[in-house]
Design goal:
alpha/beta, six-stranded mixed sheet, 3 helices
Length: about 110
């Protein structure tokens, strides 16, 4: 089981091809990846939990997919690939609770 974002990136690198993704570029700055999915190119960010994406205040308009170990929110306006279950959660509209944005990073 991963303990942080770096571990999530390692697991994704191992599973990406089996899940249908090709890693075109991996980088340190946001977003973490440029991925291939068929003929499409996607910008993707890796996080341990979905809520970490919000806590880090990343720009949702610059991300096509969030790769996480644990999807811990009932909604996100972009698809979430949860590696724990290998399920892709469809985008859902909603507003993040302010307590998530105010909480300090674990």
């Amino acid at each position: 089981m991963p303990k942080n974002e770096l571990n999530v990136r390692e697991i994704f690198a191992q599973r990406a091809a089996r899940l249908g993704y090709s890693i075109i570029e991996s980088r340190a700055a946001f977003p973490d990846y440029v991925l291939g999915l068929g003929r499409r190119r996607l910008l993707a960010e890796a996080e341990f939990r979905t809520s970490d994406f919000l806590r880090h205040r990343h720009d949702l308009t610059r991300c096509d997919l969030i790769v996480v170990w644990e999807h811990d929110l009932p909604y996100m306006p972009v698809p979430i690939l949860e590696l724990r279950t290998e399920e892709t959660h469809r985008p859902r509209r909603g507003r993040p609770p302010t307590r998530i944005l105010d909480r300090r990073h674990d």
